[in-house]
Amino acid sequence: MANFSDTSNPKLTVMIGKPSVDDVILGVKRSINQGAEAFCILAQGFKPEDKNKENIKRIIDAADGRDVYITNYIRDNSQPELTDDYLAEQLLDMARCGAKLIDVRTDMFCRSVDEVTRDFYAVQKQKEFISEIHKLGAEVLMSTHIFEYKSPENILEIAKLQQMRGADIAKVVTVANSDKEAEDAFRTNFLLKEKLNIPFLFLCNGSHCRKHRLLGPVLGSCMYLCLENSNTGGPQPTIEEAKIMREKIQLLEGNHE
User: Fold this and answer.
1) Residue 58: CB partners within 8 Å, gap ≥ 6?
2) Which CATH number is 219's domain given?
3) Which domain covers residue 229, as residue numbers?
């Protein structure tokens, strides 16, 4: 399988987040039958006792050779024992089990409201952590989730910080709640494609994000984050919707060669 950072054909990556590992595995198997090419597993949803090497291996085996991207987001102050050092060890274990893409937040080791730390010691620790993941044969996606509008220039600045820290893929999630913000989302894709030296995954939430969710990956983002075909009606595309959109764009591009 091509690396997640291979942008020649944005992967149909199915996002699955369920508290039961068995339910995740069922979702993986259903999605394979629907055309899934890779998986994004939201491991933070697992019960603490279920987040172990055996279960991660079971999920990766169920993917049947398809690449697995894993997130491990915990930001709950009611669980103070879940420090970023603790989460980092879990992520390393996931890479050892065969996960091909590991999500590292841009404020890891120094949590910040905007999910971007500029603390010198935290940044150095991030770089060392990313190097450890690379040694295990996995790629790193560095992510920032912002729950308000940011200009294309602001997003490029964050993505460049992620690039400098050693990420293979830069990920920024923001919002589009108006026509102007939706237009800027598309402008962001073009700006990142022109100015960034690594692949990127730029996503929007909000009332006006649907078109960008469908078109972003064919305008430079390195993958589709999609859902099983039964999960219709929301902003995120299903496997079938993403597949159709990708094929239509490829057909148009082929007609202009």
Assistant:
1) 21, 25
2) 3.20.20.70
3) 11-255
Q: Do the beta carbons of residue 132 and residue 116 sit within 8 Å?
A: no
Contact 68, 59 (CB under 8 A): yes
pLDDT tens digits, one per residue of 194-251:
999 999 999 999 999 999 999 999 899 999 999 999 988 889 999 999 999 999 887 8
Q: Name the 3-class secondary structure at 32.
A: helix
Tell me the per-residue pLDDT of 179-208, one tens digit each, with 9 for 90 and over.
999 999 999 999 999 999 999 999 999 999
Find, among 78, 14, 82, the residue nearest to 44 by Cα.
Answer: 82
Which tens digits make up the pLDDT trace of 64-76? 999 999 999 876 5
In a domain, 3, yes or no: no
Name the nearest CA neighbour of 174 among 214, 141, 209, 200: 209
pTM: 0.94
73 by Cβ neighbours in 10 Å (0-12 / 13-18 / 19+) ranks as middle
3-state secondary structure 155-193: HHHHHHHHHHCCCCEEEEEEECCCHHHHHHHHHHHHHHH
The amino acid sitting at 208 is: H
Q: Indicate if the pLDDT at residue 80 is higher than 60.
A: no
Amino acid found at 90? Q
Total number of domains constituting the chain = 1
CB-CB contact of 223 with 13 (8 Å): yes
Q: Is the dihedral of CA 47, 51, 55, 61 positive or negative?
A: positive
